[in-house]
């Protein structure tokens, strides 16, 4: 999630929402919705009509005059490609079941469309290899930026007036770093962010400590580096709708393995490998292994201008 869009909401406390999203074990969080197998859920339904049991309802949603929340995850083959949250005024009651069902259907379609939008372009431009460095204060506002960080922010421009002044993904990476500094469980997954011109960056975040020692500091340094092929190739393969097993086969092929080597490494028969290959070729629109490798690698390593 790179941005927040609002027409008339006061987003001055958006930092609190980011903090709750990372730190609170709440009802109907985006990961919980995804694990449940549905694509949309309301807080009223998840709480069985008692939304006051939700931390974010008590601390945020109700304070802004809302009585219910509808969340949607844009899930499709290969992963979750986006998410959204909608609020409903208290005097309008909970979201009706038909609206949740409509959101569920729409989220499924949006997941497919967003997945397709991540397919590698035919002629991508080169990415500047210089890392971008952000120094964020306790409210995830930038205290200092490197030159490449300023340029990257412009390429990640968010039109909505949030108080963060950095994309949500960067703020979330900072909050995860703070959790790790406190010894709390933190997802061990790479945080990737995509610019408007189609380039991927990998985010690395770490808290800062005073030189004299002491507890975990509130300031966080976030470094954004151009994502390596190892981090981007799985995204491209997932964008084609490959299953997890098909992605494993395709990755080994791209690395140069033949059918026998793929079968040995994945503990399957060569015939099963061939079946997976047929599915991979059909979904990616190629007819040969060399074409598959060329299509993916060209997107990652375009020829010089």
From TrEMBL:
| Entry's transmembrane regions | none
Return one GO MF term: DNA binding
InterPro entries registered for this protein in UniProt: Sig_transdc_resp-reg_C-effctor, Tscrpt_reg_LuxR_C, WH-like_DNA-bd_sf
Q: Which UniProt keywords apply?
A: DNA-binding, Transcription, Transcription regulation
Tell me a GO biological process for this protein.
Answer: regulation of DNA-templated transcription
All copies of the HTH luxR-type domain together span 256-283
Q: PANTHER family recorded for this chain? A: DNA-BINDING TRANSCRIPTIONAL ACTIVATOR DEVR_DOSR (PTHR44688)
Protein name (database record): HTH luxR-type domain-containing protein
